Amino acid sequence: MTPDESNDSGPQGCKPGILRNNGWTLLAATVVTIVVELGTYWLAVGLGVEARQAAMATLAASVLWVALAAGPLAAGADGGWGMLLRGGIVADASAVSLAALAAMSPYVTILAAAEVYCTLAATALFAAGVVACAAGRAGRLPAAVVATFVLMAALATPLWIGGALQAEASVAGPIASSAAMVNPFYSVASAVVERTHFVWHQARVMYHITWLGDLAAPAPVPWYAATILYGVPAALLWGLRILRGLKRSAATP
Known about the structure:
This protein is mostly helical and 253 residues long. It has helices at 3-6, 18-46, 51-75, 80-104, 110-132, 140-155, 157-160, 162-167, 172-182, 184-191, 193-196, 204-209, 225-251.
């Protein structure tokens, strides 16, 4: 057993000193997350951006930040609990930003903020789960890169599915709808659609830079789509890690 493996069986029971070992990182990640997200809002307002667009920009920044930060943060931890805490902190810190946004903007309700949080939490736990299942310390950073790439590719689906829509015109609708379902921002936009009336594939800019709308219009995406699509794999990944830890413990004399 390597030194890393001895502290790598979580999350099964919280090890002594887990917060002491990760406290400063968690605090820094919390502060940076809130600054990035609320900073986006105030920057947009300061530039004279319309209030609805400022709220949507903040939500987009939240999804993007979680996709970029969760995996790398988890990769720097020792043990399962550390990975879970570090990977999940960006979503938990986003809850503060979302509560503030709900207080400042008429376009985001507390209920909508809670629904957005579910999407952010699912994506963060998915990224951290990919890292947690990596083989040893050396595999964590590559795993974080893979998780980040998957999430960023999902967020960028409107930009890269044009070829598929053109090549498979007969099933362009289902392809577009599937691409929308896996895109966390579509779920986030759906959570606030009653107030914002913003549908991503109907945004004017999308007609200029993508084939969405011209070749196919995705079906409406429920707010919980990304929560399920990333939450279920996340649960399976963490369950696999726990089983692996139990097997390792049973094999230890």
